[in-house]
Amino acid sequence: MPTEPPRAAPLADGFEELRAGNLGLRLAETEAEIDAAQALRYRVFYEEMGAHADAATRAGMRDRDAFDAVADHLLVLDHDLGQGPEAVVGTYRLIRRRAADRIGGFYSAAEYDIAPLLAFDGEVMELGRSCVAGAYRTRGTLQLLWRGIAAFVFRHRIDLMFGCASLPGTDLDALAPQLSYLHGNHLAPPALRPRAVPDRYVAMDRLPASALNMRAALASLPPLVKGYLRLGGFVGDGAVIDRQFNTTDVCIVVKTDLVTDKYFRHYERTAGPG
Questions:
Q1: Confidence (pLDDT) at 195
Q2: Where are the beta strands (DSSP E) in the chain?
Q3: How many CB atoms lie within 10 A of CB 147?
Q4: Pairing with 204, which of 3, 89, 125, 169 sits 20 to 30 Å away (CA)?
Q5: 271 vs 15: CA distance, rounded Å
Q6: Element (H, E) at 228
Q7: What band does 144 get if pLDDT is binned at 50, 70 and 90?
Q8: What average pLDDT does this structure show over 183-194?
Q9: Are residues 179 and 248 in contact, defined by beta-carbon separation less than 8 angstroms?
Q10: What is the number of helices (H) and of strands (E) in the chain?
Q11: Does residue 153 or residue 95 have the better pLDDT?
Q12: Poorest-confidence range of 100-104, 143-147, 259-263?
């Protein structure tokens, strides 16, 4: 019987699995687990959210790209289903600077000028490709994912996190309240402000503040985006329409020294040297 190949990303340096009832969270350890994460991404992004698959993606029923090979893949596992690939019900892709250097840059650079982030004097990490199977989209699962990101941040002394976060759909009129709210209330400071690349730039300040119901706009944001904002997150200048994935993207930036909530304090005390 063939043995499982070692994990694909040799930069990985794992942490003890986190548990919440039947759910666990850890880094992928085998190619088969990464494949399960890519299969979950396909089901969520393409079958559920209406992303447009090319022939190869449709045939393989996997959402994969070149960045997967250098990334760390955070997994949510339902241990009632098993201990390995069959148990994967959530995933998040993490790419550190050294990993991005291997492949020539970060995924976000296709949508944003991230030069201000690359110039940041500290360890940076890109977050992306987050998804959870429908039956597991609960507050508890999201909290478990944030605990995992916290453990990773403190183990590897990450100073700045960023990534493209998606709003569903590409109708700018429908998304005008959310985009305007983000631009008016959470725009990154100039020194840390990525800007959408010129040929994809979409203005976010689409409605005047007087026309906005701030509370309703905030409430209608995806849970993940609201989570970033709770951690002190900012957004870059301009949105980007991603027609392949049927989304409108914003660039999120989070300085970890602004993070003050319960998800991170425990790990600052206990993670130890990276």
A1: 98
A2: 18-20, 23-27, 72-78, 88-96, 112-113, 124-132, 160-168, 195-196, 234-235, 240-242, 247-255
A3: 18
A4: 125
A5: 9
A6: helix 223-230
A7: very high
A8: 97
A9: yes
A10: 9, 11
A11: 95
A12: 259-263
